[in-house]
Design goal:
Polyamine Oxidase, Chain A, domain 2; six-stranded mixed β-sheet; disordered N terminus; about 35% helix
């Protein structure tokens, strides 16, 4: 089962029916109905702007927020927690709508760690290593704020932590004890890849780790599922303002102003999609290139020639795009064409990495393309195992899997290329199984191993997980799950991964570059294209609240008056301080 009900024939028809009813010209078009898109739409609606349309590729809203029922539990296939309380708009929204239980009785939390031969590690050792690990991680975060530099040739979080681990273990004399502690450190680093969203912590830039701002208050789970937060957001939006199962093919954004002096026919002929600045053009025929781009007809499956009907539809689309006087024209996969003054693009970074070069006409500025390439959009997947009866000790909440150190990947590059290494070792990236309930377990997996798991059937994954549990619990009678659900975020066409991280060599500047709005001309007061989503928030990337805030910011730019409103202040006193106190900031 996919977490992402991909569009079926019936939903495609729905999109076409809906779009035919809709007017084709809007003030704002929002691409994507994930948290950023819904946040933008909400902010517009609350401030009296209802002339907007949301175009969503999936047949549901929510993007990477999706909950399903599994047994008596509501499980999260995507976003899991509200990260932090203080200053978190998601927490405030959840509280406002009664989605958080005030009386929160914490469940007993007992973690056990076991080696491959089924031996459990004494809790004191586990605690000792965990505390040392947290200390090492905090030291990595300090580089972002401090002026001092890391040791030479240490560029990633993984390299720095491994250096600290090496120095720490030098103080342990017994080889057996040293080896056991190293296994715990390795397990915690695997866990960190799932938190950060990467294949290995060696990919994460050391100097930028501290750029992520953690909000205080811990992780909050919504009892009714994270998806329940979507309802209050959607309640403010008219149904006709959201078109589902309507993927966007192209956004035509850089247009010359229409010249209406010669009447409508002249204006229509004059309106072409052109680059505004000559120096940005590779050659003098940018309009020809652009026109060719717009008239391209989608090629049928297997590279077959388009039918006469497809060709006619393509020509009609090209004609309508060329004759449009709008700032932005959005072309959809189903043939629908919408015009807008502004577009807010909330497509995930994974989709931008894959489609940015073809999605925008003309192409995005080079600085934006480079930043899209520089940032990391990793894969993190979940494995849910549902059982008929409990089998784990009632007091245990999580079992950490201390896998023996794997052969260095550098030594197996050839094998890995042909898939053999991943086939033999993918499951060793699962660092633990935790209890969601007495009869429901959750495992996490990241990186290339997660991508490989997405190619396997759920039955194969369930069998492998059963073998793992039997091995580490030293219990051949661990039952097989009655149901196994695995996510597949890399495979999903409308996400192409899980969330954003700052790779070695990248920085917050890359996030700011992607967020930078695009103007069709230097004289525009409001941008034609804006970008929102977790990948556009420099401090809260990878979170739902980052997506929410970025969407709200994009909408606010459009709502702000073109010229600042003059505020007339009256003061009885000529005293400067009393005058300053009288200034009210909106």
């Amino acid at each position: 089962m996919s977490e992402d009900g991909t569009a079926t024939t019936s939903t495609d028809q729905t999109a076409e029916t809906m779009s035919s009813k809709e007017k084709r010209k809007h003030k704002v078009i929002i691409v994507g109905a994930g948290m950023a898109g819904l946040s933008s739409a909400n902010h517009l609606a609350k401030n009296g702007c209802t002339d907007f349309l949301i175009l969503e590729g999936r047949n549901r809203v929510g993007g990477r927020i999706v909950s399903i029922d599994m047994g008596s539990q509501k499980i999260e296939l995507g976003a899991n927690w509200i990260h932090g309380v203080l200053g978190n708009p998601m927490f405030e929204l959840a509280m406002q709508h009664g989605l958080i239980s005030i009386i929160n009785i914490p469940k007993p939390h007992k973690v056990v760690a076991a080696t491959e031969d089924g031996k459990q590690v004494p809790f004191q050792i586990l605690q000792e290593i965990y505390e040392a690990y947290v200390c090492f991680l905090r030291r990595c975060e300090e580089y972002f704020l401090c002026q001092y530099l890391p040791p030479p040739d240490i560029h990633s979080v993984g390299e720095h932590i491994n250096l600290e681990v090496e120095l720490y273990l030098d103080g342990v004399d017994c080889a057996k004890e040293k080896h056991l502690r190293k296994l715990i450190f390795d397990c915690l680093l695997k866990r960190e890849t799932c938190i950060t969203g990467c294949h290995s912590m060696d990919e994460i830039d050391l100097l930028e780790l501290g750029s992520y701002t953690e909000l205080q208050g811990g992780n909050i789970v919504l009892p009714s599922g994270y998806s329940s937060i979507l309802k209050p957001l959607c309640d403010n939006l008219p149904n006709e303002n959201i078109v589902l199962s309507c993927p966007v093919r192209r956004i035509h954004w850089k247009r010359k102003a229409s010249r209406r002096a010669g009447g409508e026919a002249t204006a229509a002929a004059a309106d072409t999609i052109l680059e505004e600045d000559e120096e940005e053009q590779d050659d003098g025929n940018e309009s020809d290139d652009s026109d060719r781009t717009v008239t391209e007809v989608p090629v049928g499956a297997g590279g077959a020639e388009p039918t006469q009907e497809e060709r006619r539809a393509g020509e009609e689309a090209a004609r309508r795009i060329k004759s449009s006087t709008a700032n932005v024209v959005v072309e959809c996969e189903n043939g629908a064409i919408y015009e807008a003054d502004h577009v807010i693009c909330t497509l995930p970074l994974g989709v931008l990495k894959e489609q940015a070069e073809t999605l925008f006409v003309p192409a995005l500025p080079q600085y934006k393309v480079e930043s899209i390439d520089s940032l990391l959009f990793g894969t993190v997947d979940k494995i849910f195992l549902e059982y008929d009866r409990p089998f784990l000790n009632a007091t245990i909440s999580e079992i950490m899997l201390l896998w023996e150190q794997q052969q260095q990947e550098d030594d197996v590059e050839g094998q890995e290329r042909d898939g053999q290494w991943l086939k033999d070792n993918w499951y060793k990236k699962i660092y633990s199984f935790s209890k969601v309930s007495d009869t429901l377990l959750l495992g996490w997996i990241s990186g290339r191993e997660a991508e490989y798991m997405e190619t396997l059937s759920h039955e194969i994954v369930a069998e492998r997980c059963t073998d793992i549990l039997r091995q580490f619990l030293k219990d051949p009678f661990v039952p097989k799950p009655k149901r196994c659900v695995c996510t597949s975020w890399r495979k999903q066409p409308f996400s192409r991964g899980s969330y954003t991280a700052i790779a070695v060599g990248a920085s917050q500047d890359d996030i700011d570059n992607i967020a930078q709005p695009l103007y069709s001309s230097p004289h525009q007061s409001k941008p034609s294209v804006m970008f929102a989503g977790e990948h556009t928030h420099a401090n809260f990337y990878s979170t739902v609240h980052g997506a929410y805030l970025s969407g709200r910011t994009a909408a606010q730019i459009l709502l702000t008056p073109d010229s600042p409103q003059e505020i007339v202040m009256e003061s009885d006193s000529s005293d400067l301080s009393s005058w300053i106190q009288g200034i009210a900031l909106d």
